[in-house]
Write a structure and sequence with these properties.
The complex is a heterodimer. Chain A is mostly helical. Chain A has three helices and no strands. Chain A has one domain. By secondary structure, chain B is mostly helical. Classes of the chains: A mainly alpha, B mainly alpha.
Chain lengths: 100, 192
C-alpha cells in the first residue's frame, strides 16, 4: 500500500458521543445566531467560525483526516480552499454593503 | 454493560477496529478528494453569484428553518450511528446501527423532498439565481445521500465485509460534512 496510509487507527477506541453532542450544540448555537438580531458582519463571521469548528470536528474525530493520508489532506485542502474563497467573497460583500 | 452501551462508550473490541487502513480506504479518500472539488466548484459558483447579484433574498423569507434544522440533526445523528456501526461490524452486530443510520438517512431525504415539494409552488429552479443555486447544491447533495442510503442498504447483507462498512462510514461522514456549508450558506447566512 502507498505511503501515507497508516496501519494504526487513530483514536479507534474514543467514544463518538462527545463529538456528536458537540456538533449538536454547535448547530444550536448557529440557529441562535441566525435568529438573533444584530450586526450582519458579526453574525456572518460567527456563523463561518462555527462552520469551521464543526467541519474540523467531523474531519478529525469521525473521519480521522489528520492521520497522515495524502488523499485526506487533499480533501481538506480542496474543501478549505473552496469554502474560504466563498467566505472571502461574502465578507467583501458585507463590507461593501456597510460602506455604501 | 450492554454491547450497544460499550460501543457508545468507546470500548475497543480488538485492535484495528475502526481502522480505515487499506486499499478500499485509500480509494475512498481519493474519490472524496475529487468529489470535494465538485462541491467546491458549486460553492464557488454560489459565492460568486451572490456577491455579483444586485439583490439577494434573505433565506428566511423563502425557507423554513425548523425542518432544515431537523434534517441537519438527523445527518449528525446518522454520523454517530454510522461510527457505532463500523465498530459493531467487527463483532458481527452491525445491523442495528446500520438500520438506525439508514432510517436517519431516509428521514433526511424525505425532509429534502418535502421541502422541495413545498418550495416548488413559489420558487422554481429558474426563478432567480438564489433558486438555481439552492436547487443545484441541495440536489447534488441529495444525490450523494441517496447513493449513501443505497450503499447502507447493501451493507445489511450478512455477507458484507467489515472493511466495506468502514469505507462506507467514511463516505457517510463526508456526506454529513458536505451538508454543513450548505446549511450555513443557504439557510442561515443573512442577506444584505
Amino acid at each position: 500500500m502507498s505511503a501515507g496510509v497508516p496501519t494504526e487507527p487513530v483514536a479507534a477506541g474514543a467514544s463518538p458521543l462527545p463529538p456528536f453532542l458537540a456538533l449538536a450544540g454547535l448547530t444550536a448555537a448557529e440557529l441562535g445566531i441566525a435568529l438573533a438580531g444584530g450586526d450582519r458582519a458579526v453574525r456572518i463571521a460567527a456563523l463561518v467560525g462555527l462552520l469551521a469548528v464543526k467541519a474540523t470536528v467531523v474531519l478529525t474525530l469521525f473521519m480521522r483526516a489528520q492521520s497522515g493520508r495524502r488523499a485526506a489532506r487533499l480533501t481538506v485542502v480542496a474543501l478549505a480552499a473552496a469554502v474560504g474563497f466563498a467566505v472571502v467573497l461574502m465578507l467583501e460583500a458585507a463590507f461593501r454593503a456597510r460602506v455604501s | 454493560m450492554t454491547a450497544a452501551a460499550a460501543e457508545i462508550a468507546g470500548a475497543r473490541p480488538h485492535a484495528g477496529v475502526g481502522s480505515h487502513a487499506g486499499v478500499g480506504s485509500a480509494g475512498m479518500w481519493t474519490f472524496l478528494a475529487t468529489d470535494a472539488m465538485g462541491f467546491g466548484g458549486l460553492f464557488i459558483a454560489y459565492g460568486w453569484l451572490r456577491v455579483r447579484a444586485t439583490a439577494w433574498p434573505d433565506p428566511r423569507s423563502r425557507l423554513e428553518l425548523a425542518p432544515a434544522a431537523a434534517m441537519t440533526l438527523a445527518l449528525l445523528a446518522s454520523s454517530f450511528t454510522m461510527t457505532l456501526a463500523a465498530r459493531a461490524s467487527a463483532r458481527g452486530r452491525r445491523v442495528g446501527w446500520l438500520l438506525a443510520t439508514l432510517v436517519l438517512g431516509i428521514g433526511f431525504l424525505a425532509g429534502a423532498v418535502s421541502e422541495d415539494v413545498h418550495l416548488a409552488a413559489r420558487m422554481g429552479f429558474s426563478s432567480d439565481l438564489y433558486a438555481s443555486t439552492f436547487y443545484a447544491l441541495t440536489g447534488f447533495h441529495g444525490l450523494h445521500v441517496l447513493a449513501g442510503v443505497v450503499a447502507l442498504a447493501s451493507m445489511l447483507r450478512p455477507s458484507g465485509s467489515v472493511r466495506a462498512v468502514e469505507v462506507t462510514a467514511l463516505y457517510w461522514h463526508f456526506v454529513d460534512l458536505a451538508w454543513m456549508p450548505i446549511f450555513t450558506f443557504l439557510y442561515l447566512l443573512p442577506a444584505r
